[in-house]
Request: fold
Amino acid sequence: MEPTSVDNLIREIHAETPELVATRRDLHQQPELGFKETRTAAMIARRLSEYGYGVRAEVGGTGVVGVLEGTGTGPTLAIRADIDALPVLEQTGLPFASRNGLMHACGHDGHIAIALGAARLLARKRKEFHGRVVMIFQPAEEITQGALAMLGDRVFDEYRPDRVIGLHIWNQLPSGTVAVNRSTVFASAD
Reply:
């Protein structure tokens, strides 16, 4: 099978955009605080399962891990997104504004939607890569406890990643830009 061309990949991503926007807006309307992300986690687990991932829920409390095997042996790539919101009253007036007095003020709703989009696309391409992909949806990032809780639940014991991509929206970059750093970035809440 020929690898996917960049143009085809871009077309596939654009085709997913309406669903990703709808997912993000749904999450934005129903944000949940750290370790209370039950609705969010259930939706993530359901979607990953639909895409063909092996799913492990309740990792570190309300975290979700999805594993996708490619063809043959190869490296393990982990993609991480955070899923919690803040106790902030949204006053944007947007039609999809939060309905419960909390807010995804740091973009975690976008992180989830983007990571789920990547998960779906990778599932469709699973015959084109060797190794595995581990999708990590981390709870309680805003209170700096979710990563420790997931590590406490031995999230990396079975599927030790060779690389981890930590997804985060950054308003310092123009919309549509993806930036990657060779070293550690955004690595610590302190």
The first helix runs from residue 6 to 29. The radius of gyration is 16 Å. The mean pLDDT is 93.
